[in-house]
Amino acid sequence: GKKGFIFDLDGVIVDTAKYHYLAWKKLANQLGFEFTPEQNEMFKGVSRKRCLNILLDIGGIKASQEQFDTWMVDKNDDYLEYIDNMDESEILPDVKKTLQYLKENNIPIALGSASKNAQPILEKVGLLHYFDTIVDGNHVTKAKPDPEVFLIAAQAIRITPENCIVFEDSLAGIQAANSANMISVGIGEHTILKDADFVFKDFTQISLEFLEKLINSKKS
Ligand code: BG6
Ligand code: MG
């Protein structure tokens, strides 16, 4: 059947994980504890609310609902400041080449992200026009590894799940793609993304021949 491609945003299209990290670290430090890059690994693909819950666990802090809501806003305000200056130079290597190739071949392209800031980021880096649909943290009720975000994206581009190819940098995202019955392509380390159908270090390792094979595969 006809194929469709679904991209995660943070860590796949742009390296925003570093800005999320800085914003969470700032909050942690304000609350009087450290937050390390290693701990930040657990935050990839995870919703803002769940991240704050994990952060407060790390710091051993119990919060009232009111405090919790305030800290959610504080973190996001800081994150928005960090991403304010983003431009196309922050698109990860060869991502644009991949999107361009798919566009030229009339392949539907969707975004499937947990972030509520997805659309403004795509606008800032000048990639918004490549996407036929954006499904993000504003549209889902169940977070990855639940497949909801990718199933909604598939429906929006009118491609059956078996014919969708998902690019993801988080284990939760790979698991979401797998339970949606989609082809999962991990971007990052084999050791972390061990459930993926394919793993590449980054898009420079993905050849146009490989994309062509995916597009023409008859398996499903
Ligand atoms: C995911 C990131 O894409 O979006 C997570 O990997 C982040 O780290 C989540 O917490 C939610 O993002 P936002 O922009 O809505 O806070
Ligand atoms: Mg990601």
From TrEMBL:
Its EC number is 5.4.2.6. Keywords: Carbohydrate metabolism, Isomerase, Magnesium, Metal-binding, Phosphoprotein. One of its GO terms (biological process) is carbohydrate metabolic process. The record marks 113, 144 as: Important for catalytic activity and assists the phosphoryl transfer reaction to Asp8 by balancing charge and orienting the reacting groups. It comes from the Bacteria. GO terms for molecular function: beta-phosphoglucomutase activity; magnesium ion binding. The keyword Transcription regulation does not apply. It is an enzyme of class 5 (isomerase). CDD domains: HAD_BPGM. Its cofactor is Mg(2+). Mg(2+) binds at residues 8, 10, 168-169. It catalyses: beta-D-glucose 1-phosphate = beta-D-glucose 6-phosphate. Binds 2 magnesium ions per subunit. Substrate binds at residues 8-10, 24, 75, 113-117, 144. SUPFAM superfamilies: HAD-like. InterPro entries: B-phosphoglucomutase_hydrolase, Beta-PGM, Beta-PGM-like, HAD-like_sf, HAD-SF_hydro_IA, HAD_sf, PGP-like_dom2. The active site is at 8 (nucleophile), 10 (proton donor/acceptor). Belongs to the HAD-like hydrolase superfamily. CbbY/CbbZ/Gph/YieH family. This is Beta-phosphoglucomutase. It comes from Yeosuana aromativorans. The lineage of its organism: Bacteria, Pseudomonadati, Bacteroidota, Flavobacteriia, Flavobacteriales.
